[in-house]
Fold this sequence. Notes:
Elements: H1 4-18, H2 33-37, H3 40-56, E1 64-73, E2 76-83, E3 88-93, E4 99-103, H4 104-111
Antiparallel strand pairs: 1-2, 2-3, 3-4
Amino acid sequence: MRTAFPFVFVLALVASACGGAATAEAPAPAISTSAADNLIPGQLARGAALQTEIRSAGHDCNKVVRTFQQGVRDGESVWDAECEGGESFGVISKADGTTDVLDCDAVERQTGTACWEKLEE
C-alpha cells in the first residue's frame, strides 16, 4: 500500500501535465435573424402561432406543416400557412394588432399576389 501512493501521485501529476495549456476557443459566429427564423424551433413556434390564429377564426387546422412570409405591405405582414390535409390560409397581421385569416383566393384578391409568392414591393 505504501508503494502504491507514490505511484498514484506520480500518475496524477503526469496526467495533469498532459492537459497542456488552455486554448482559447473562437466565439461562435453571429447568426442572422433570417437564418434564425429557419431553425426548427422557430418554425414550430411560428406554425403554432399561425395555427392559433387560423383556429381562432373558426377554421379547422390540426397542425401547420408549412409557413411562408409573403412580405409586408402598408404596414401589414402577410404569412401563409398550410394545414395538415392541404388547406392553406393567409394570415394578415395589421398594424393595430388585429389579424385577418383568409383563404388563399381571398389573399390574392386583397394583395394581388397568390399565396406562396413574395409580395411585390
